[in-house]
What does this fold into?
Amino acid sequence: MNKFIKFILKLTGIAALVYGALFAVFYYDLDGKFMYYIWEPLMIKRFDSMKRQDTTAMPYSMKEKVQ
Amino acid sequence: MGIGLKDIKAKYKELFVVEKSPEEKNRPRDIKKSLHDFWYGKPHEERRLGDLYVGNTGLYKHREWRGVKDTMYYFNMIWLYNYAHMVSDIVKYGDGPMGIVDFAKGIMRYRWMGQTYLTVMHWFDRGLEGVRDDALRASAWHYRAMVSESIRQIIRMFQSDKKLNGGKTPDKWNYNIAHNETVSGSIFYPFRDILEDIPLEMIPYFVSVHVNNHTVLNYIDAAQSIGLPADPCPMCQAEYGLFVLDDYPDYSPVMVTSNEACDGSVATSVLQDWFLNRPLYAMPQPMRYDDPLVQKHCQKEIEGCWRFIEEHFGIKFDWDQYVKYAQSFNKLTEFEWEKWDVAAKTDSYPITSVAQALYRIYYSQDGDRPIWHEIDDRVKRIMNKTVKNKIRTFPKTRHRAIAWSCAPLYYSHWCTWAYNCWGINCIINMDSLMFDQYLRTDTYEHALEDLGLYNEKAPMRAMAVGGHEHILSLFDYMERFNCDMVIMYDQLQCKGMQGIHGVFEDEFRKRDIHAIWVPHALPDKRTVSRAEIRGIINDYMTTVMREEPLDPTLLDFDDSNSW
It folds into this structure.
């Protein structure tokens, strides 16, 4: 029983720590700051250098005539 | 060159420290007031929301402290709840944990996904700044619905996308109808038990601009880079820019397009026909949508679309399905009318203008989906409470405004700012009032008649480019919603609305109405910045109305690089 209570207390402690850490992320807008300063520049770099199909090279008149 | 302690301190100060105002610095410490502010949040006039921003980024040094109750509600029921439910939505709509893999593939493939949608909680933040109590709760539920429905569409597109599956055709590809975002989802009710109808530009373009306006500029520039003119509506430019950059998911064997709302959309349809190179049905809508002579033609167009679907998918039109979804959708319409009544006749309407507008345009365009009903039930409970207890949901309201014409997508939350700064409470807007139509289901003829009219009342057509008598219905709505001020959107590249600018000027003068013209270029923040929009409203409020701001820190700040 004693062990069980200890386990529950430990679990509660960990949950409280995680909850507190998440609140800090929320309150100090750390999610926004991560997205803005780290994630978005990485994505911009990725998409700017991505090789894409040249869609304008597609011929104009491939379709059959509309009835 | 190394980073010194001084640099770290300066960066910390820039990112996290809110400077106190001189008055606050000089004020003697009042513990009782500090405790009161901590528990209940600061009074509106003392919030100094503008001090919370980090430079020109729109980020917060810290998120707003709204008092214990509202801050904890925001943290638990908005921030945590939505992050958690985004993951559960991905798993739910993605048929299990593999949905996360499809989602991740999409993030790495599409700019509008990888660069844009992960910043979604800041969309909530911007729209809910300064909002408290019931208004905070009801408005946040609207955002939750839009996020959930967007994830449903995103996952379905990614699961069916040939590009994300190495060019192979996923089975789901054969069961999707792609359509232009201005074609009403209600058109496809007869086939919804078998096919999924997903608007092609809704997620890659329209919703993305609201969430993060950086991405769309790539598409506008891409359209112009192949020699297309820069002066049509930038919405249409962005829509076909997606194709120029090959940044659209290939998730359907067919496409249904429209000429709605203007000539720019005609170009979108033509270019999509070229780029997509697959069976395409163009379903045009008349300029004068309520002309009785055009109704039969429009109904035939819808029937033509249904035949097109039957032909290409080998399935039959199902009347029972249509009735089921149309009747269910009518329940959403009935609640919408209830909301309008509360907004018009009481001070207890608990929804911010931006939440009202975006939710309304999203669900009425998208058509019947379970999430809209779930959210309406939640909002109904909150609204019943505010009305019953006569709660003034926006207690600092000085002016009840109506917003007319189409809004700047990159600054749809201007109304949250206007309330916080000036007490301008935007009660209703044009976009909310479109689709004002019940769908009868007693006979096929009635159903078709109503569906035709409904589709014709699509974005902008009903009140912006559908004839001057509809445009001028602003004044009837102004009276109906008990408004004393007009925010007149001035979309600089909308030829239809530009053409009638002078008529409005005359009418405003004749009727002695306070109207503030808000120029913008729909998704393109480079033409008129958000700061310029605020400047125009500030000028009007100080020089014409001779009023003092509620929160002076919001008068002038730089958010040029914000999402």
Summary: Chain B has a mean pLDDT of 94.
